[in-house]
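Below is how a single chain appears once it has passed through the pipeline. First comes the sequence as given, then the structure the pipeline wrote out for it. We keep one example in the README because the format questions we get most often are answered faster by looking than by reading.
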Amino acid sequence: MELEAFVAVAEELHFGRAATRLHRGQPTVSDAVRRLEHTLGGRLFHRTSRRVSLTDLGAALLPDARAALAQLLRFQQRGRALAAGDRARTLVVVGHAEYTGQQLLLRCLPQLRDRFPDVTIVPEAMPTTAQVTALRAETIGLGIGWATGDVTGVHARVLSTERFMALVPAAHPLAGRTELSASELSTTGLLTWPHQINSGLCDRLLAAFHIGGADLRIIRTADSVQAIAAHVAAGTGIGITVESALDHQPPGLRVIPLTGPSTTADQVVLTSTEPSATATTLRDLLLLASTERPFADH
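Resulting structure:
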């Protein structure tokens, strides 16, 4: 319960929302986090009456906590399969970062099942940094994420280069533009993904604004494109996402590409240094499918 509570609060940055997500009372979640902090000997969160944020210790341990929970889930799934007598099947976990094109994975799974009928693929949402950790520990078979600085001990192949896209209300003064630069969005209130979910994308976006001499002002984060679009439609600000995460034109919004240095990010497939035959085949299928992937018409 302690790890579940820590990860839920870290992702929600709100004890009430974390409690709702876990179907527990808020005092139960708070007590679980305090027990974990006592065990570790340090605080995981900065808490005030207005906001919750990760401490340096919390940010450093979050990928390990996610990997540990993923390992526990695989243990439970394998235990149930063995208890049911299904001893022949092999479980391969595929980590996928938020905002990656999950449709790409879905297109490849039927072909993979044809080649490996005794393999069960378990997709699991996981930040890229956690995927790298899990691949090194051999607790997942393959990852789909975003290019990041630290990929030592794993192999990375580029699936696609994605443009950053701005979600702008149709009535906004910038809605008529065909492209937008970072300088044009300087000091504008932006909505995008949390750093702990996609640190590589955040760092890339920060670089785009830094190179353009602009100020990056993120006023709200959300863990799905749908949530970002809803906030933009409500007039909260301008959203930032990546092209592959948009599978349709959000109603009432304009989708405008960003232009300039560092306004693209590489989507990558990650494998261990010695991947299994299943992981190697799935990687090759993903690379092939990425060359044929249809893009939404913006």
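DSSP finds nine helices and twelve strands in the chain.

See the next section for the split statistics.
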